[in-house]
Amino acid sequence: MLGTRMNWQRWVMVLPALVFFVVFALVPMCVAVYYSGLSWDGITDPIWVGMKNWVTVFKDGEAWQSTWLTIELMGLCWITQCPLSLVLGVFMAGKQKHRTVFSIFYFIPLLFSAAAIGVTWSYILNPNFGLVNAILKAIGIGNGNENWLGNPHLALFIVSLIIAWQFVPFNSLLFQGGAKQIPESLYEAARIDGAGPFRIFFSITLPQLKYTIVTASVLILTGTLTYFDLIYVLTGGGPGSATQVLAMDMYKQAFINNDLGMGSVMAIILAVFGLVLSLLILKFTGFNRMDSQKEGM
Amino acid sequence: MNRVGKKFFMTIVSAVLLLGLLAGCSSSSSGKGSGGSVVVWNDVSGDAKDAIDKMVDRFNKANSDITVKSQYFETNPYKQKLHIVMGADNAPDIFSNWGGGGLKDYIDAGDVLDLTPYLKDDSDKYLSSIMKSVTFDGKIYGVPHGNLQQVNFFYNKEIFKKYNLNPPKTWDDLLDAVKVLKSKGIAPIALGGKDKWPDLMYFEYLVDRIGGSEPFNNVAAGKDNAWSDPSIQKAIQMMQQLVKAGAFEQGFSSVGSGDGEDAALLYTGKAAMWLMGSWGYTSVLSDAKDFVDKGNLGWFTFPTVSGGKGDPSDVAGNPSEFYSISKNTKNKKAAIKFLKDANLNDKNVSDLIKISNVPAVNGIDSQLKDSDNGDYMSFSYDIIKNAKYFQQSWDTALSTKEGNRLNEDLSKVLLNQMSPQEFSTDMNKYLK
């Protein structure tokens, strides 16, 4: 139908988006590749050092540690967010009494900025004056001496819990929407066949939410990859470098150490990482050819 | 990249960053007359900001042909902002800085005006131990303003009295006091390890007490393996010895200093001692005036280390903040006049003393003694005046990159994630 005559119109339609993409995504990326070969602090004249920054990054192992921490955080975030938001979302999609009231409570964290959440939680978790330790001591669990964000073995896990606190509401919103789309007739049929609530959940709700789970997982994983603000406020990458994920490392190199070359190297690693991740997700989940599951209904 | 390209890029970046600022301030400074207008950038707030405002007002009234405008920023964003405008050759006429390696970076980039010819008749005005931080190759690039910021121990007198303790004079005294306090269930020392720079205060004092100023000078000069100096290794060991003895409060690596948490440990009686810059006094004063009024806040200099080479009178810390003039200012004359006439003149000095700040000028002993918080202010002033050597904080004295790495590694040292050997090996990579 669309003959060659229409071709130029299509290009015109695409043009604004294309221009934005080139100017704000492609050009900066190419510039970052160029910067990664510089020794430059932003004020003196830059010096071209070729692959030196790359060699340093891969030799001293710190980038590997940041990469590993990022993967670890992605795993932790998926485990803490996905199952919980699924259950909450399905619950909120139901017809129970006071459901709206509950939902409103669940959504409150979604309204806060990451900085506010970070400051609040660092006070709550404070080892000396914090609420959590005071409560634990009052009810007799431990001696109220736990050092939540200052313990290198615990910090990343605690951070992932706080990220979950912030994002579970959003993800459960996705699941709520997904669950509401499931036709009532499927449940009726299941009940007639004598299925109990658990059987219904695992045989109907869960399979029907397959693509919602994929969507939520993609959002959680890609979101965590570049996650920065909350970690910056909560721990600043510490204690030591226990929570220094890739994005944090990039910021530190470029804007604290004023080493734009090294910062660009980290930025490129982050971009490549993100690219590989999206390709893998597309390949293994069929995210690109999602089709309706309701054919014939 | 060529100079033009770099400038273009930095101009765009700074334009975007400045947009937020411009939206906030209605900057409608129209220069009145021939003297022109001068913009001054500061990173202070509260009382210190009021003192600068007063100084600027007085100057503007006295000089009808010049308009000085002072702008204020938060410290950490200020450092980044300054860095960017410097790169874009778009700096304000006068900018506040900390001297040392950070200022040297700007001088090397040709962005800072040499003030030597204009300060000839002012040679006796400022404390000489302070001026070292802005003097490079015999040329002076800044003048001090505001408060002296040396580091010393503060302590809770009530707790010390209760357990019959005296302010420790030597390192061994300190370890004994730590042992006693620990056994009584009190955190011996409050440390804001989350911010990392408080860790540095132990390091720079210990290195100086053990090895004098030489280890630092070698590092600053970039000598091979300067970080492997035995004094530096010993200092690292002693810091780990403190941690092992349980000297710091639980969770010190997640306790902040910028947010006043370490100070709170001291004045709520949870901790007995606190190593901090002189601003610690003013922050306790504003957060817990009662505590100071009751006479519970004490102070002493950093303990000596037996057999150490450093002079016991040596002091470490940030000497002061400084005003420097950027080279491309359009109103050089007015800017210099402001620094010479308004900054640290008699009225400004008495304003500063009123808010418990100690300015870096000679001959104010009696004025300090008679003021409200004269005890502490005289203590600060005297130890700096009598110091054989003022060790500027290593993180501002060295290049930004090396200094930040140092703070980062020290926090790992205190977490026992790094041995003295690993510390030296890692830091040697950053020698400039």
Q: Can you offer a commentary on this structure?
A:
The complex is a heterodimer of chains A (297) and B (432). Helix content of chain A is 68%, strand content 1%. Chain A is mostly helical and 297 residues long. Chain A has a single domain (47-93, 116-287), classed as MetI-like (MetI-like fold, Orthogonal Bundle). In chain A, helix 3 runs antiparallel to helix 10 (210-225). The longest helix of chain A has 32 residues, at 62-93. Chain A starts with 6 loop residues before the first helix and ends in a 12-residue tail after the last helix. By secondary structure, chain B is α/β, with parallel strands linked by helices. Helix content of chain B is 48%, strand content 14%. Chain B has 20 helices and 13 strands. Chain B has helices at residues 3-24, 46-62, 75-87, 100-108, 128-131, 157-162, 171-183, 197-211, 214-221, 230-244, 261-267, 279-287, 289-293, 332-342, 346-354, 365-369, 374-385, 394-397, 400-414, 420-428; strands spanning 36-42, 66-72, 94-97, 135-136, 139-140, 143-145, 149-156, 187-190, 271-277, 297-300, 315-318, 321-325, 390-392. In chain B, the strands form three sheets. In chain B, strands 7, 8, 9, 10, 11 and 13 form a six-stranded mixed β-sheet that branches. A five-stranded mixed β-sheet of chain B has the order 2-1-3-12-6. A two-stranded antiparallel ribbon of chain B has the order 4-5. In chain B, helix 2 links the parallel strand 1 (36-42) and strand 2 (66-72). Chain B is globular. Mean pLDDT of chain B is 89; it is low at 18-33. The interface between A and B is large, with 34 and 39 residues.
The helicity of chain B comes to: 40-55%
Number of strands of chain B: 13
CATH topology of chain A: MetI-like fold
Overall form of chain A: flat
Q: What is the mean predicted local confidence, pLDDT of chain B?
A: 89
Q: What portion of residues of chain A belong to β-strands?
A: under 5%
